[in-house]
Amino acid sequence: MIVESFQKTGILPLVCDHNLTTGSEVVYHELTSGDPDIPQILAEEIMTREGEIIGLFLTGMIPPYLSAAETLDLIHDNNGLAIVPHPFCSFRRSSALKEETLLELAGRIDIIEGFNSRNTHDDEDRRAREFALCHNKPVSVGSDAHHQKDLGKYWLELEPFGTPEELMRSLGSVTVRFPVMVRGR
After folding, report:
1. Contact (CB, 8 A) for 161 and 167
2. Residues 6+ apart with CB under 8 A from 179
3. Dihedral through CA 19, CA 83, CA 15, CA 162, nearest 10?
4. Helix (H, G, I), strand (E, B) or coil at 139
5. Is 178 part of a structural domain of the chain?
6. Cα–Cα distances in Å, from 142 out to 35, 49, 89?
7. Can you give the three-state secondary structure of 19-30, one letter per residue?
8. I need a surface site. Which of 39, 144, 163, 167 has the fewest CB within 10 A?
9. Residue 185: predicted pLDDT
10. How far, in Å, are 2, 17, 101, 131, 171 from residue 166 at the CA level?
């Protein structure tokens, strides 16, 4: 269903299974077999002792339940990028990276998710974008698709990229846009 969504919309997904790279391996194998110019982005949403961190452009799976600092080390040892998903999310307190950890490790985090379609309060996304701005970090958006209906709900329009460095350059010059929604306050 993810490959079919890409074929229909042209929106390249970042497939980030919880504590596994298997989903992104399968999806990107299928995508790149049809178009070798599509970048292979092995990704994983990794549960650390302090909350979740996404690794992009990984060369292998990162073990879960390490400290956030150790997880960042392993992502960067893989020449990957680290995204903090849904920071400041109030209904996912057990999986959102603890605020004190976010502050402590801000200099080692590459990207902050500034809009997550599953956050229930606009203020949570606003705080994430303010944090990114304050710490000079680019912002990503996430559909956080756990169901087919959520695929491709939100996305960024970026210049083509194939490497972590190219993605970071592209994120640095993009204007982030997403639909305005009426959500809980």
Report:
1. yes
2. 154
3. -130
4. strand
5. no
6. 24, 22, 13
7. CCCHHHHHHHHH
8. 163
9. 41
10. 24, 23, 27, 23, 9
User: Is 7 among the domain residues?
Assistant: yes
- Write the CATH number for 131: 3.20.20.140
For residue 110, give the nearest of 145, 71, 63 by alpha carbon: 71
More confident residue, 35 or 109: 109
**Residue 180: inside a domain, yes or no?**
no
The structure's pTM equals: 0.89
pLDDT of residue 117: 67
Identify residue 89 by its one-letter amino acid code. C
Give the range of the structural domain holding residue 70, as residue numbers without chain letter.
Answer: 2-172
Q: How far is Cα of residue 160 from the mean position of the Cα atoms in its chain?
A: 17
What are the pLDDT digits (tens) for 37-60? 888 899 999 999 999 999 999 999
Give the pLDDT score at 93: 66
**Could you give the 3-state DSSP secondary structure of residue 180?**
coil
Task: Please give the structure tokens belonging to residue 78.
Answer: 């893989």
**Residue 99, SS3 per DSSP:** helix
